[in-house]
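In the design runs reported in the main text, the only information available to the sequence generator was the tokenized backbone. The following block is the verbatim input for one such run; it is reproduced so that readers can re-run the procedure and compare outputs position by position.
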């Protein structure tokens, strides 16, 4: 990246290091500890458990530079990207944090020193403006009295819509939980721009730093309760502060952005290097590269959907600038060239995969978009009023991914008007539905906790425990009674809480054998292990002591499947290469499911080879060792780290000797022989470049093989052959069946030609209407369509009634040409002439078909009634 970016990065970390902050690496773009977020969107995400009080931080002062994605949810900058000077889908956030250490005064003094001291950023003091929550007098006085900011440069920000704490300067993690006032620092660009801090934020006055004072816990009643420890959370955009320090009025004028834009223009060839579409593409190649490097793949769900939207939006903007051929994937190498050395090394390891994924998505989308443009042009041709409705625009956008801007450009060339207001309405309906269906909706954090549940279940299946808390319907209570469904938190428990793909344990909490709580599932929330279930006998109350007992058989099956998952992961990497990455897993007592990245197809022989190698490891009875190591002691690159908690000093390693080493908190067997047997029961593609394997172990694997063997013996008996010749006999019979099908088809065609001739000869012409009624031989009613097509080629004004006996039922169809269907109704003809209930009848005025059970006499009587009814109808028309 440009020199200024790197200089700002270095100075920020150096400054806070001198202020006794521990420098910590930013976390993954995929939050490890927060299912409520699609992506990491702020520096504080990784420290959420510290703010909540679930975990005690190892360092009271921390500083980071965090990669962030802001697309979707509360922080959705996508539509602004490229059309403002400061918004990005991907950016880096500079942050400093205090957990129970310094608070308002120190945080403000640090920010002021870094921004204004000539040793550091050296911004002009008179150009700095401040916003403060209107009741936070303490913060106001620090800025005014201690720092010396003039009153006119401090803006008190009130609540929106008279809703308490609903303010840009009052931060809340969610509806309840940690919260507090914030103060924001703005810089006046001047640049001959008019306006003041109240009315021109984002144009003349640019927010550069947000400092949040987390000092309260908000309960369900909306009350603010002081927290036992007070924390500071700050965030400053790296690109934003860098552009200000360079005296630029846009982030897109930074050195590295300009380099990217010029490279884009090598493919686009536009004279206007300031075009908004170039900015969109420059931003989106960054976010696409980093998302894919974190293992995200384009799809129609969740994170993959966001990546797909970003890639497609960039391609659409390439189209707006006239580029129809694939180009986006070619920018990957160009971008990586301008990042710093550390990032370059990281991205080069994944560059081939990144290029492949973007190229595949781009080629597929170009096919879709070409189809969409053809449809758009058809819609334009059909439009008599030179007008496209909002519904038509939305369909093209939603189904084919054509951006409104691209549609508008095409329509301007064709002089077609667009109904943008109606399109906006459809878009809002979609957004509301998306919010309603959002699978990342977060559970309300009810209480701030310093309590801890100790997990004691790696070796023990029973623990003597004390009840810390009881919840029913998310309300804290003192007692749970018979029949109640609730959640119980213990001080110590053998129950494993769902995590790392492994489901939670089931079992019982028992007191004196007279009070029993059945545990259906176990979850983890921070440092708390939550037992979900039902009181099936007696009652329990807070502070009771009891025995917590997991279902041992269920745990053993889960542990076998978890150890087998490690073997599977290792064999896949050994067979297909170390670039194979785990993309998800589910481990329960019935099966294991494993998702992994692999671009080539999986063949059946591959599956057999994988099974064979894993079972070889199982039969060798390899010991499985589990040990704890300090992070700084771990230097072995062969250890697979999937969920790397960067702030825990100790790591639990599961070591299957000479086969696999992984960071893992799950439960495992003592040796591979305990897994028993391993069988893959299903494998499939679930996304572009992502494969999924389902497998089973131990007795379930044996039962599966026995069932398959039983089926083979049964099929062999049907074919009257031995198992060795079974496939040969099946293929031989299949060949015979195909010959018979061909013969039947020829016979049916012969009968159709013959019956068609008979029908034509027996045609009744009345009032210029042709009436053809026939009973066909016992043939598949599917041939009706052949009859009707052939007959309608000869007779234009016609009523056709066909019937046949097939599989003990009478099937019939009546077809009336549209030129007379307004006078004679097909459905009415059937309904008026059936005494018995029709098994199945559907149709409309000009065609109806159905089936019915009739004996021979009833059938002929039915045909006669139909003939007379139709003749009478025709006579009435004369």
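Verbatim output:
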């Amino acid at each position: 990246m440009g020199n200024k970016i790197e200089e700002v990065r270095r100075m920020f970390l150096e400054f806070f290091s001198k202020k006794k902050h521990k420098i910590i690496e930013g976390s993954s773009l995929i939050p490890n500890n927060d299912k409520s977020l699609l992506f990491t969107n702020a520096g504080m995400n990784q420290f959420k458990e510290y703010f909540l009080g679930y975990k005690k931080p190892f360092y009271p002062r921390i500083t980071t530079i965090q990669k962030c994605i802001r697309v979707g949810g509360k922080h959705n900058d996508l539509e602004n990207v490229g059309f403002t000077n400061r918004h990005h889908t991907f950016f880096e956030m500079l942050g400093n944090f205090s957990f129970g250490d310094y608070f308002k005064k120190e945080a403000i003094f640090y920010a002021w020193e870094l921004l204004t001291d000539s040793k550091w950023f050296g911004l002009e003091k008179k150009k700095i403006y401040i916003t403060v929550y209107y009741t936070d007098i303490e913060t106001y006085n620090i800025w005014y009295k201690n720092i010396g900011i003039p009153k006119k440069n401090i803006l008190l920000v009130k609540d929106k819509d008279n809703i308490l704490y609903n303010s840009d300067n009052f931060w809340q993690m969610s509806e309840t939980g940690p919260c507090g006032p914030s103060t924001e620092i703005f810089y006046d660009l001047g640049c001959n721009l008019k306006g003041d801090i109240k009315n021109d934020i984002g144009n003349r006055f640019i927010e550069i730093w947000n400092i949040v004072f987390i000092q309260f816990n908000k309960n369900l009643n909306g009350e603010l309760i002081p927290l036992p420890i007070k924390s500071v959370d700050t965030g400053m955009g790296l690109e934003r502060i860098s552009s200000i320090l360079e005296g630029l009025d846009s982030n897109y004028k930074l050195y590295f952005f300009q380099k990217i834009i010029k490279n884009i223009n090598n493919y686009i060839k536009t004279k206007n290097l300031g075009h908004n579409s170039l900015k969109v593409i420059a931003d989106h190649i960054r976010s696409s590269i980093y998302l894919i490097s974190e293992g995200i793949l384009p799809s129609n769900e969740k994170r993959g959907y966001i990546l797909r939207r970003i890639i497609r939006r960039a391609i659409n903007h390439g189209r707006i600038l006239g580029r129809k051929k694939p180009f986006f994937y070619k920018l990957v190498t160009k971008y990586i060239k301008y990042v710093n050395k550390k990032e370059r090394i990281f991205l080069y390891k994944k560059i081939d995969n990144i290029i492949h994924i973007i190229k595949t998505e781009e080629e597929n989308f170009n096919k879709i978009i070409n189809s969409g443009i053809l449809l758009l042009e058809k819609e334009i041709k059909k439009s008599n009023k030179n007008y496209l409705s909002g519904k038509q625009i939305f369909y093209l956008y939603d189904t084919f991914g054509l951006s409104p801007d691209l549609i508008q450009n095409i329509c301007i060339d064709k002089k077609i008007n667009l109904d943008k207001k109606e399109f906006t309405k459809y878009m809002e309906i979609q957004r509301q539905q998306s919010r309603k269906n959002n699978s990342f909706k977060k559970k309300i954090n009810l209480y701030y906790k310093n309590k801890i549940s100790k997990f004691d279940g790696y070796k023990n299946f029973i623990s003597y425990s004390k009840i810390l808390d009881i919840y029913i319907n998310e309300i804290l209570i003192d007692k749970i009674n018979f029949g109640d469904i609730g959640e119980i938190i213990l001080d110590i428990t053998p129950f494993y809480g769902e995590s790392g793909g492994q489901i939670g344990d089931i079992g019982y909490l028992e007191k004196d054998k007279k009070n029993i709580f059945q545990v259906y599932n176990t979850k983890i929330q921070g440092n708390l292990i939550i037992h979900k279930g039902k009181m099936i006998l007696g009652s329990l109350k807070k502070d009771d002591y009891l025995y917590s007992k997991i279902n041992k058989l269920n745990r053993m099956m889960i542990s076998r499947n978890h150890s087998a998952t490690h073997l599977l992961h290792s064999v896949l990497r050994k067979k297909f290469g170390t670039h194979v990455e785990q993309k998800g897993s589910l481990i329960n007592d019935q099966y294991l499911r494993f998702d992994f990245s692999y671009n080539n197809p999986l063949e059946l022989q591959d599956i057999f080879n994988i099974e064979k190698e894993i079972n070889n490891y199982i039969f060798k009875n390899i010991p499985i060792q589990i040990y704890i190591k300090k992070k700084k002691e771990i230097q072995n690159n062969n250890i697979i780290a999937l969920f790397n908690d960067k702030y825990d000093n100790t790591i639990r390693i599961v070591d299957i000797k000479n086969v696999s080493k992984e960071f893992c908190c799950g439960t495992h067997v003592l040796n591979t022989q305990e897994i028993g047997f391993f069988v893959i029961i299903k494998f499939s593609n679930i996304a572009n470049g992502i494969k999924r394997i389902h497998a089973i172990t131990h007795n379930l694997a044996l039962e599966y093989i026995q069932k398959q063997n039983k089926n083979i013996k049964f099929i062999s008996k049907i074919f009257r052959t031995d198992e060795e010749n079974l496939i040969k006999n099946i293929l031989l019979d299949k060949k015979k069946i195909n010959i018979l099908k061909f013969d039947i088809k020829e016979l049916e065609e012969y009968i159709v030609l013959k019956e068609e001739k008979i029908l034509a000869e027996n045609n009744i012409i009345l009032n210029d209407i042709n009436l053809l009624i026939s009973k066909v031989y016992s043939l598949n009613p599917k041939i009706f369509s052949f009859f009707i097509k052939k007959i309608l080629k000869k007779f234009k004004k016609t009523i056709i009634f066909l019937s046949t006996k097939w599989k003990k039922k009478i099937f019939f169809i009546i077809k009336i040409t549209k030129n007379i269907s307004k006078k004679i109704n097909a459905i009415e003809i059937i309904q008026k002439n059936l005494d018995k209930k029709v098994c199945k009848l559907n149709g409309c005025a000009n065609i109806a078909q159905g089936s019915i059970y009739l004996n021979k006499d009833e059938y002929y009587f039915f045909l006669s009634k139909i003939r007379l009814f139709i003749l009478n109808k025709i006579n009435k028309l004369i």
